[in-house]
C-alpha cells in the first residue's frame, strides 16, 4: 500500500527553541471519522488526534486536545482558546492570508471507481471517451471532469450516496470522488464488493487544494517551526506511517 510522503529526507532540520513553546493546546472536532471523532468514553480519537499527541511526544511538551464544533474552530483560535487547530482543514489562499499553517500532512486524492468486471485499465480521458462518469454536483470533482474529460458523459447527482448507488446499480460506468471515502466504501459492506478503483490518484492543487495542515494564529513562528520539525521527525521515524495505517487500513493512493 502506498503511504503518502510530504517531507524531503534531504532537508536539514533546524534546531527548535522549545523554551518559547511551553505547551500546545490543540483544537479539533469530533464528527469526522476516521480523522477525528468521539470514542466510547466521549474523548476525541482518530488520525488527527493521534498525530497531535505524537507531535507533543516528539517535542516533549504537555499537550491538550479540545473538541469543538467545526464551525467554531477558527473563532476559538482567534480568541486564544487554543494554540493550533488539527481538524483536516484544507489549505486555501484565504486561510493562508488569515493564519499561519504548518507543512501539509495529508491530501485527499480524487479517484475513479468502476464495476469489477469492467474491462478498463486506465483512467485517461481517451479511455473514458463515450463512457458515463458520476460526480456530485458542485464539487471539485465535477469541475475537474468538466475540464479534462470532455468526451465523457457527465452524470450529476446531488449526494455521494446517490452517485454510489448509480455506480453499484450500473446506471453509470464510473464514479469520480474523494479517494479516502471511496476506499472505505469499496472495502466496506455497503458496496457489496461491486466495484474497484480505476487508475491512480488525482492530486492537482488547482482543483483539490494543497492538502491538510495544522493552523495557528499569525506571528507564532516558534510554534510553527516546532510543529514542522515534529512532523518531519515523525515521518523519518516511521511513526507517521504507523498512524496512517491505523486510520486508513485500505489504500486511497
Structural notes for this entry:
With 253 residues, the protein is α/β, with parallel strands linked by helices. Helix content is 32%, strand content 21%. The chain is elongated. The chain starts with 23 loop residues before the first strand and ends in a 6-residue tail after the last helix.
What are its keywords?
single chain, 253 residues, alpha/beta, five-stranded mixed sheet, 9 helices, 13 strands
Topology:
Layout: E1 24-28, E2 31-32, E3 36-38, E4 44-45, H1 47-59, E5 63-67, H2 73-78, E6 84-85, H3 93-98, E7 100-101, E8 110-115, E9 132-136, H4 140-148, E10 153-157, H5 160-168, E11 174-178, H6 179-186, E12 195-202, H7 205-208, E13 215-216, H8 221-237, H9 239-247
Parallel strand pairs: 1-5, 1-6, 9-10, 9-11
Antiparallel strand pairs: 2-3, 3-4, 6-13, 7-13, 8-11, 8-12
Helix pairs in contact: 1-8, 1-9
Amino acid at each position: 500500500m502506498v503511504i503518502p510522503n510530504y517531507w524531503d529526507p534531504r532537508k536539514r532540520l533546524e534546531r527548535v527553541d522549545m523554551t518559547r513553546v511551553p505547551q500546545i493546546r490543540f483544537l479539533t472536532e469530533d464528527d469526522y471519522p476516521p480523522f477525528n471523532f468521539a470514542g466510547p468514553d466521549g474523548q476525541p480519537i482518530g488520525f488527527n488526534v493521534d498525530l497531535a499527541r505524537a507531535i507533543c511526544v516528539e517535542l516533549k511538551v504537555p499537550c491538550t486536545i479540545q473538541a469543538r464544533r467545526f464551525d467554531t474552530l477558527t473563532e476559538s483560535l482567534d480568541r486564544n482558546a487554543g494554540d493550533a487547530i488539527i481538524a483536516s482543514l484544507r489549505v486555501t489562499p484565504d486561510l493562508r492570508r488569515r493564519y499561519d499553517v504548518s507543512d501539509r500532512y495529508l491530501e485527499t486524492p480524487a479517484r475513479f471507481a468502476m464495476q469489477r468486471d469492467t474491462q478498463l485499465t486506465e483512467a485517461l480521458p481517451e479511455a473514458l471517451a463515450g463512457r458515463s462518469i458520476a460526480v456530485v454536483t458542485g464539487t471539485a470533482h465535477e469541475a475537474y471532469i468538466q475540464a479534462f474529460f470532455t468526451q465523457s458523459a457527465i452524470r450529476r447527482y446531488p449526494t455521494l450516496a446517490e452517485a454510489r448507488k448509480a455506480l453499484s446499480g450500473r446506471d453509470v460506468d464510473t464514479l469520480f470522488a474523494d479517494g479516502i471515502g471511496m476506499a472505505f466504501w469499496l472495502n466496506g459492506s455497503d458496496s457489496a464488493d461491486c466495484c474497484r478503483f480505476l487508475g491512480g490518484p488525482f492530486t492537482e492543487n488547482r482543483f483539490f487544494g494543497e492538502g491538510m495542515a495544522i493552523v495557528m494564529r499569525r506571528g507564532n513562528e516558534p510554534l510553527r517551526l516546532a510543529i514542522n520539525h515534529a512532523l518531519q521527525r515523525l515521518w523519518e521515524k516511521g511513526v507517521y506511517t504507523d498512524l496512517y495505517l491505523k486510520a486508513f487500513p485500505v489504500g486511497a493512493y
